[in-house]
Request: fold
Amino acid sequence: MQPNGQMSRFGAMKVALHRLAFVVLVVAAFGLMLLGKADTVLVARLSHTVTDALAPVLEVMSKPAASVGAVMNNIRELAAIREENARLREENQRLLRWQTLARQLQVENQRLRELSNLVPDPRPGYITGRIVADTGGVFARSLLVTAGARDGARKGQVVVAAEGLVGRLTEVGHRSSRVLLLTDINSRVPVIMEESRARAILLGTNDNQPELAFLKAKTGISPGDRIVTSGVAGAFPPGIPVGVVASVDEGHIRVELFIEEGRLELVRILDFGTEGIVADPGPGTPPDATE
Amino acid sequence: MRPTLWQILDQTARRLLPFALSLLLLLLAIAPMTSPGFMRAGPMVTLLCVYYWAVHRPDMMGYLGGFLLGLLEDILMNTPLGVSSLVLMLTQFVVLTQYRFFVGKPFLITWWALALVALGAILLKALAVALLSGYVVAPAPLATSYGLTLLLYPILAWGFDRTHFLLTKES
Reply:
């Protein structure tokens, strides 16, 4: 046993050290905030290093999570298998009619292209990445995928899933990258209404449904209208499906995306060979200084 | 008596366990679920971890633990660096200054106190994000996140109680 006085002195020192640690770390936190504003390159490098290091761990963890999700889906689907079957039969018939029409149109399109000597759009190369983290939340919305610089991913490349546009690469590490989702508050995508050809910008709001802004003519927009990328400014190739108008009310046009963010497993990262895409003009996004 | 190497290793592992568990929970929270997970609404998992250990065993997770956990959260979640660290450390600070209040209190009281602490934490975080990146988070997602955080606490606390029991069983 130690003498009582020594114990209390030791205790007091411990308390003082504890307080000092608190003050130092709070100052460090403020320092990090300033650093985040001042030196975006350094912060991006720190972020790459951490996500690269954690990517394998996240990948291992995402597999059981995916299997649990698959089992849950199976159970849910089993319950509704009859109705689903009937619905699919009906849809199949409808799609077969569409397929016939599409074939006719394809042939016609081909002929017209030949007649008018149209320059074809470049066909993109792509790499596929598995999603290992879905950091959808209140303050930011992004995904981490297992494809990085070593696989040919580059900052600014467009990310799509089978259903439509997912987002864009904003950070590319050695073996992992971050996809800024369309719903993130920093996301700005030039889009066009498929029917009326009216141009607009799709703004993320950190909510499930992004909004349309800078639309020239607001009349004539109704729920159900399809929206695709417009290719203005060269950041996105034209014609990638984005979503449909979900609701129109005074000044706010909300868009239901084709992709279901929480359900994505694999995404394709497209390489259109369009270099020098500028970073998002939105606040909080670091300028493209690493390349 | 000098502790043996095995004892030192054992002690270190015990001390690191709360932090390791919190890290694991943070990673689990962002693991992609193929079903529409409620995790997408963003319960503040790290806040719960930090709060639990500050209330029950402040010596097991110090300010450095809160700082590092917050830093990792900010990097993984793509929020401005330093914000989560600050929020988590302030949470620890508030709980530790009110230590007398928390000692030996039943679960319901700590849950109720969490409701206050988490409200302060989420508002502070929203304010810090607004100041640093210039956008204001809509109140509805904040409320959802807050509600989920509170709902998640009993489950998490139960798991941590078991861990805590194991940790103290032999030492």
Q: What stands out?
A: Helices of chain B lie at 5-30, 45-56, 63-77, 83-97, 99-102, 107-133, 139-170. Residues 14-27+42-170 of chain B form one domain. Residues 139-170 of chain B form the longest helix (32 residues). Chain B touches chain A through 51 residues (CB under 8 Å).
